[in-house]
Write a sequence for this structure.
C-alpha cells in the first residue's frame, strides 16, 4: 500500500461502467458514489485520483485493464478475490454502491488481502494457452459431432 493513503476508493466494475466510492481513514464517505462509463476511465482518473489514494477492486474479466490504467496515478491498487470479500463483508443486499462502499471501508481498516497480479509476459502466456485450449475444445467438439446421413432419395454427389 502507498505511504499513508488519505482516501480509500472502492470500485465495483462492470462491462460498461463502474461505481466508485471513496472513504477516509475513519470510513466516512468523502467521494461518490459515482457511476462512470468505462470509456471515461482515463478522464475520471485525471479528474479525481491522486498519489495519496489507495484503490481496491474485485477480480473481474477487465480487472487487469483497470489495474494497469490506475497504477501510475495512485498510491496503490489492490485486487481482491470476490469470495474473500463476501466472507468478510456480510453485505446482505449487494448493489453497486454498497459493493463499492464495502470494498473501500474494508480496505480502510486493512481487512482485505490482494491477489497476485502477474506481469505482462505471464498474462500473455496465459492468454495464449487459453486460446489454444479453446481451439482444441472446438476442434474436438466438431470432430466428435454426429454425422448426419444424406436424406433418403437425395444424392449430394452427381
Amino acid at each position: 500500500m502507498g505511504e499513508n493513503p488519505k482516501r480509500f476508493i472502492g470500485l465495483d466494475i462492470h462491462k460498461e461502467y463502474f461505481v466508485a466510492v471513496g472513504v477516509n481513514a475513519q470510513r466516512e464517505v468523502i467521494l461518490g458514489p459515482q457511476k462512470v462509463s468505462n470509456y471515461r476511465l482515463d478522464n475520471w482518473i485525471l479528474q479525481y485520483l491522486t498519489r495519496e489514494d489507495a484503490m481496491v477492486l474485485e477480480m473481474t474479466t477487465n480487472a487487469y485493464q483497470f489495474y494497469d490504467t490506475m497504477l501510475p496515478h495512485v498510491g496503490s491498487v489492490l485486487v481482491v478475490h470476490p469470495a474473500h470479500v463476501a466472507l468478510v463483508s456480510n453485505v446482505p443486499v449487494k448493489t453497486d454502491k454498497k459493493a463499492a462502499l464495502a470494498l473501500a471501508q474494508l480496505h480502510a481498516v486493512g481487512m482485505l488481502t490482494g491477489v497476485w497480479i502477474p506481469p505482462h509476459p505471464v498474462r500473455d502466456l496465459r492468454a495464449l494457452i487459453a486460446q489454444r485450449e479453446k481451439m482444441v475444445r472446438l476442434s474436438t467438439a466438431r470432430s466428435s459431432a454426429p454425422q448426419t446421413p444424406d436424406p433418403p432419395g437425395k444424392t449430394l454427389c452427381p
